[in-house]
Amino acid sequence: MSGQSRVMRDIAYVSQEAWLRNATIRENILFGEEYDQQRYEEVLRVCALKPDLRILDAGDRTEIGERGVTLSGGQKQRLTLARAVYSNRRILLIDDCLSAVDAHTGKHILMECLLGQTPLMLGRTRVLVTHHVSACMPHADYMAVMHDGRVTACGTPDEVQSQGSMSCEIQELELELIRKQQAEQAVCDMDDRAEIDAAMLASVNNPRSEDDYMAEILANLAEQRGADPATIDPVELDDMLVEDEEREYGYVRPAIWIEFLRMCGSTQFWVLMAGTLLLENNASIFQSYWIRLWMNSADGSGSSSHSVVFWLATYTLARTSTMIIGQASGVVRKTGVLRAARLYHEQLFARVINATPRFFDKTPVGRVINRFSSDMSDIDRDILSNILEMASDIIEVISMVIIVSSVIPPFVAIAVFLSYAYTRLSIYYMGATRELKRLSSVSRSPMLSLISEMVAGVESIRAFGAQSQYIVEIMNRTDLYYQPDYLISAARSWLGMRTSLSGSVVSFSATILILMNLDRIDAGLAGFILMYTNSFSSTMMFFVHRYSFCEADMSSVERINQYMLLDQEAPAFSDPENAPPSSWPSNGDVEVQDLVVEYVPGKPVIHGISFTAAHGEKVGVVGRTGAGKSTLSLAFLRFIEAARGRILLDNVDISKIGLEELRRSITIIPQDPVLFNGTIRFNLDPFNDYPDELLWDALKRSHLVSENNDVSASSSGTASPAEVAVEDPTNIAGRMSGIFKSLDAEIKENGQNLSLGQRQLVAMARALVRRSRLIIMDEATASVDFDTDDRIQRTIRGAEFSDSTLFCIAHRLRTIIDYDRVLVMDRGQIVEFDTPWNLLQIKNGVFKSMCEKTGEYKHLRSIAQSKYDRKAAAI
């Protein structure tokens, strides 16, 4: 066990799906390690993070939100890589860190981080899982080729090539490129090595101090704003994405109470509720008074004018009536509880589900869970019951005062004095418990957020051996959560001691008054009065407790009402005069006019871009990580509303129509595909709109099933959900992993039983099923091997997508090199937009430079030229 722990402490893991903490960039990189300025700066350099930090207002102090929502896919991947590199672990397990970055950044990471001979990487074993075989193979000391969970070849690169086991992973042209690349790469590396060594020497001899680092951030922020660095307040560097959870202070506003009562029922409901409460209370008083009459009915000899049966039967009838009235009151009460809970839940769900994406960026999931769990639980269980019991206590107290005062008038003065004392106690008590309840509600959210974060990143946490760190943190957050509850219990004990003392005063005073009036108070009446005076103090205590509970629980309603004010997305459907035709879009013509997109007001991410795409055109979108490519795709679906400009789809301004009308007409295949817990059929066609044959065809074209799969047998649903078709080793399609035999095959939550590449293929199949006129692919094949990617691209170029306008965001330039046009973006602007061949003719062009840095320039150029020649011949 000690040996295993020692090994685990020596491993750093970079997962294929980047897992990040809801913290700042620096905290994510350090991950509990001590801060070393020199080492930290070098990590930022080798992981190519410095250019990204320069465009952030707060640099590495920027908060990235849950799951790194404010970062691009490439930035998230490099941040997780930086976390592993910064650690002092000697073994680095890196799962495909190059798939989400552009070619230039990928080369930098490969040469400076993974292969760098800096002191940072000396003596460290680097195990890399990758599809970028042509780039990595020349530099590997050892290789292992895997297929179906087995190692099919291993050894040095030359030994693996000689075994002939890489025909599926590397095409013949790639093998030729690999042979040439070592010499070409050596020349390129020599050109950069002097500059790299100089930078390394400078960082070692002149490490920046924290003051220098702060000055640089202030200068960058001032440059962005066009201001003097001296005018920038350092407090502004705390770019806190996640704000403190909102919390009210003081008494719960009357409007909250009124709204809750209205949710419980109409006026008729409250009249019925008040009637049952009065009947129940009066029936209880009648029972006690009936016993007094029974006792006084006996004469001196002990006989009574009525039989025991009469008195007992009447008492039983009164008791039974009280129980029936109580049950009826309970039914009416539960009706109100269910009505209020249902309405609040429906409204809360509608407001959250239609909230703007910005809300989810800056709101931890724990806060949302807290509203739907704990706060809704208070409405389901406590609030209305406490309100009605409090009303019952008021009625009971008033009845007691009236009854006792009618017999002993001086008791009125005692009741008034005690009411004043209880009022003062309750004000003092409720002022504390109300705020403690609010603190308890607020402190629950961080605990829930941390738990969800731990569940999502359990592999990384275990790989880094950070369990103890998280255990300490969850214990600290749990302590913070229970501290208010402990103080609430202490406050209740404080109130109980004082109300018990007050109750003794009431009982003592009533006894003295009875003794002073024995001449007109019989024994039965004296017992009746003493019983009620003894319960007076407990009833008053219960009233104070219940009112405090109501006040505290109404803070849950208060918190739910806060979410009723969330900013909402646009309506799902437009007004009839703005509604698009039923056949829209019929072509897929796209025109973007002076588009400006902002996540935060005043801080544009896309700066006034304009371009057009014709029907059926295939447009590749490329650019450095963080250039705004994914933001552009979100703008098409209006997940981010345009701050200025517009997007026209078939001459219809998409900002004028409903979101449902827009989004059902566009298909997006995201970089991080979302799958649902269910079957393959449900994930492809959740509304059962398409026949099984079409679903199977989409799966085949996405290479998720083999070509010889028996559709008729499989679609019957008789096969086991987990069954997988037996593959023919000679069938290339059959070698694809994740080949399902039945449309009822299970997909677990978030697709956990599939690899990231397989999830991207399922998302691709979903797009094939919908056959939208506009399709957006955001790195949709980044995590699949090159052979599968090539086959998918042939599918895209085939008849299935011939009538669809396609935007493909890609870091693999070979993916889009034969597209109709390529859109090159940098820092939210279009720097080049033309056919691939024309872009390669631009001297010192950005796209040409990107192709050159891949090490495959000749191959890419030949493909682009072939595309150009075919098009010219067709004309």
Automatic annotation (TrEMBL):
Highest taxon listed in the record's lineage: Eukaryota
Record-given protein name: Uncharacterized protein
Protein species of origin: Coemansia linderi
